[in-house]
Design goal:
Largest sheet: 5 strands, antiparallel
Radius of gyration: 22 Å
Number of domains: 2
Distance between the termini: 13 Å
CATH architecture of the largest domain: Alpha Horseshoe
Helix content: 55-70%
CATH topology of the largest domain: Serine Threonine Protein Phosphatase 5, Tetratricopeptide repeat
CATH superfamily of the largest domain: Tetratricopeptide repeat domain
Strand order of the largest sheet: 2-1-5-4-3
Length: about 375
């Protein structure tokens, strides 16, 4: 058993965070990353731990980034573009990675690679937030990548994934046929093609844009692609997750960090509340809507409509302060979690406790 295993075995998410931050502050980047990696093994959805890892990698990568930026600016070298994009991704600089990939595609429009990269980035964004604009961007770049390299399998699989998820079955069958042509005899691909063909129920006059818009408005995919693809399912809307989030919110209140907590999915359904039992199968607990719940629902509606229309970027946190105290509403990858604290409550501390409430209860049991 290694040193970190002995120190961190069976520990909570807080313990992993504390260890990683202490190592970062001491400049011990390798040990900090090892603490993050150990924590992610047990808490694979923990956004607060993942961001700590990004902070460590950013501290490590600053010198290398500048050298790659110089190569990109002076030589427009494809290899430098791809290395810097990968580095940005590794340290959590998602917006920078997307902007650089756009520049890469502009500098080398004849290459498949930048379009495939940008399509994958937009697809990740679409599955994370269900914005129609991201889905459209992903499809456009992936179609371009496929046109530039007709025998490339990867853009076909990505396109099949998004078409399957939004219910674009005519387009899905087209990609399934292309995948079968390219790799139909492969033992891994064969069952994927069969699953796509079985699921597809094509209709006339199919509109990709209309289907993308419907997914955004509904806040839900037509089908879950994780049933056949490697994409991880996102969100907090499962009955099991609702029960776990309920436990996490109760813990936040019990420990004195907040007086009330709620969790609401992207469709506006109340999943968990410290004022009522956890939702059963996605049904909202009975009872009168609290002020905190009402504000959280308003934030969900804003995320779905106004924030997207104004291109305000990804939602992180919303804070209300007043004589009543503090209310914090935070992103939860498929909805929001919210808590109300006493007057004078530290907003950043409460936000972190909410993140731990959602992510810390999803940890895997120690083996």
């Amino acid at each position: 058993m290694g040193f970190l295993d002995a120190i961190l075995g069976g520990r909570s998410l807080d313990a992993y965070l504390q260890k990683a931050r202490e190592c970062l502050a001491a400049g011990d980047f390798d040990e900090a990353l090892e603490a993050v990696a150990k924590g992610m093994e047990r808490y694979p959805t923990a956004a607060v731990l993942r961001e700590t890892g990004h902070a460590v990698r950013r501290a490590q990568a600053r010198a290398g980034m500048q050298a790659l930026r110089d190569r990109v600016e002076s030589d427009r070298d494809p290899e430098a573009f791809e290395q810097l994009i990968a580095l940005y991704k590794d340290v959590g600089m998602v917006e920078e990675a997307m902007r650089l990939t756009d520049k890469y595609a502009e500098a080398h429009p004849e290459m498949e690679a930048p379009h495939l990269l940008r399509g994958e980035q937009a697809l990740d964004a679409f599955f994370g937030d269900l914005r129609a604009r991201d889905g459209r961007l992903a499809i456009d770049h992936l179609l371009r990548a496929g046109a530039l390299q007709p025998d490339s399998l990867k853009p076909r699989l990505f396109l099949a994934e998004v078409y399957y998820a939004i219910g674009a079955d005519r387009a899905l069958l087209g990609q399934a046929a292309a995948i079968k042509r390219l790799a139909g005899e492969d033992e891994v691909i064969r069952p994927v093609v069969a699953a796509l063909e079985e699921a597809a129920k094509p209709v006339k006059n199919e509109s990709i844009d209309a289907l993308l818009a419907k997914v955004e408005v509904d806040g839900a995919l037509v089908r879950d692609p994780s049933t056949w693809s490697s994409r991880r399912r996102r969100g907090i809307a499962g009955a099991q997750d609702a029960s776990r989030v309920q436990d996490g919110l109760v813990r936040v209140v019990r420990e004195g960090n907040a007086e009330e907590g709620v969790a609401i999915d992207r469709a506006g359904t109340l999943l968990a509340s410290t004022n009522a039992p956890a939702a059963e199968g996605g049904d909202a607990p009975a009872g009168h809507e609290s002020a905190l719940e009402g504000i959280a629902r308003a934030v969900v509606r804003t995320i779905k409509v106004q924030a997207r229309e104004l291109e305000m970027g990804p939602f992180r946190r919303f804070v209300v302060e007043g004589p009543f105290g503090v209310m914090v509403v935070a992103d939860a990858s498929g909805g929001v979690v919210a808590a109300r604290g006493k007057k004078g409550t530290d907003v950043l501390r409460l936000s972190e406790r909410l993140a731990v409430a959602v992510d810390g209860v999803r940890g895997k049991k120690a083996s």
